[in-house]
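Summary of Year 1 activities. Much of the first year was spent building the evaluation harness for sequence design. The harness presents a backbone, in tokenized form, and records the residue chosen at every position. We chose the following record to illustrate the format because it has been used consistently in internal testing since the harness was completed.
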């Protein structure tokens, strides 16, 4: 959409409000396709993949179900307005034109979360400040001078401002706290794996509980817990205490309770296999035990203190997944020898297993000495990682490829 040369002489069209129930599920880089498949499986409509996000359509029950069930989503956002702006004044006027009382009340707090890629708006926090001022001033105009409070840490309403070029979108966050915070992990080791990333890694393998799941460097137990929940079809946020949509005007308590009961009924009654984890660090294993207990998965996860190099072979074929150190605390020679040990142990002890390794040290991954049958690029926090699959079988030692 173009603008005339004199921006202040050219009247702006009012912001476009979204009449249809369209939602945006955000995720981590590399998990978009997995999230889209999850939404398809839930029955969402018009599922479309974007960068770190998937859009979809659905009714209010689908919004509730998405928040409860999606394993690879961070937030479920509802776009409420879209408009064009090239100046701070235009941004303010378009946001001020929205009737904000239709979304929340004076006694409900709010905060603005900006994401900006624009030559027109180069200071995200200033754009967020102008957005806040526009909303507050509209409230003052409509309520005789009163305005809702701003609360950055735990607001009732999280309003996302996305600006790409001169295209601006306002979205309401239906989730509140990020959906990766399942509630079971209050302690972690030094470099915990994000729950959404862990679940996405498992879903990529097409493993759904049809064998044992082994994490021989289990850390705080995130992979094991996510695997056990997947195997039992346990919704990751079924027991979450609160969602942001419960503050919305259209919140339907009966519909939400019914949706929760329907989701709970899909949980499988038992799982014949187990998630098996061990780690060389006793303190780390203790943290994992505490997290497993909070997740109420003690019956399905077995933990022990053990060195991977001395581990016993599994009784039958299993899915093995690990997130070994990348070299942040090890010297280069040590990390190369460490990954060589991983490869030797896999070849000697884990024949007939499918193995997946996530690592941010690609040169070290080559020291595993096995040819990966699949390579996926993922982002672990800010670290570019390789997520490699190795299919082991009797005689794997004869089929190594040290320059994988």
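For this record, the design step produced the sequence shown next.
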């Amino acid at each position: 959409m173009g603008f005339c040369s004199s921006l202040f002489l050219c009247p702006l069209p009012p912001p476009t409000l979204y009449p249809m129930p369209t939602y945006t599920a955000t995720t981590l880089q590399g998990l978009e396709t997995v999230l889209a498949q999850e939404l398809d499986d839930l029955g969402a409509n018009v599922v479309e993949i974007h960068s770190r996000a998937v859009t979809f359509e659905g009714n209010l029950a689908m919004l509730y179900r998405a928040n409860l069930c999606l394993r690879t989503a961070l937030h479920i956002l509802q776009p409420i307005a879209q408009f064009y702006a090239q100046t701070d004044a235009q941004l303010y006027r378009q946001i001020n034109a929205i009737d904000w009382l239709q979304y929340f009340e004076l006694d409900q707090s709010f905060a603005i979360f900006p994401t900006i890629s624009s030559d027109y708006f180069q200071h995200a926090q200033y754009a967020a400040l102008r957005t806040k001022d526009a909303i507050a001033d509209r409230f003052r105009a409509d309520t005789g001078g009163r305005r809702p409070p701003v609360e950055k840490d735990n607001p009732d309403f999280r309003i996302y401002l996305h600006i790409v070029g001169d295209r601006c979108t306002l979205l309401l966050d239906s989730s509140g706290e990020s959906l990766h915070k399942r509630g079971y992990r209050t302690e972690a080791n030094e470099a915990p794996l994000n729950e959404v990333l862990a679940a996405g890694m498992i879903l990529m393998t097409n493993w759904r509980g049809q064998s044992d799941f082994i994490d021989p460097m289990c850390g705080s137990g995130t992979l094991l817990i996510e695997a056990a929940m997947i195997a039992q079809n346990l919704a990751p946020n079924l027991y979450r205490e609160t969602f942001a949509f419960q503050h919305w005007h259209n919140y339907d308590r009966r519909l939400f309770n019914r949706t929760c009961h329907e989701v709970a009924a899909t949980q499988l009654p038992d799982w014949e296999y187990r998630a098996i984890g061990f780690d060389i660090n006793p303190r780390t294993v203790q943290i994992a035990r505490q997290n497993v207990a909070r997740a109420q998965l003690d019956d399905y996860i077995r933990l022990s203190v053990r060195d991977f190099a001395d581990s016993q072979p599994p009784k039958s074929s299993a899915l093995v997944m690990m997130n070994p150190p990348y070299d942040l605390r090890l010297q280069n020679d040590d990390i190369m020898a460490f990954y060589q040990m991983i490869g030797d142990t896999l070849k000697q002890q884990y024949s007939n297993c499918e193995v997946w390794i996530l690592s941010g040290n690609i040169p070290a991954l080559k020291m595993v000495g096995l040819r990966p049958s699949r390579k996926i690029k993922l982002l672990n926090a800010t670290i570019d990682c390789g997520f490699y699959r190795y299919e082991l079988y009797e005689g794997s030692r004869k089929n190594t490829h040290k320059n994988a």
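The radius of gyration is 24 Å. Quantitative recovery figures across the full test set are reported in Table 2.
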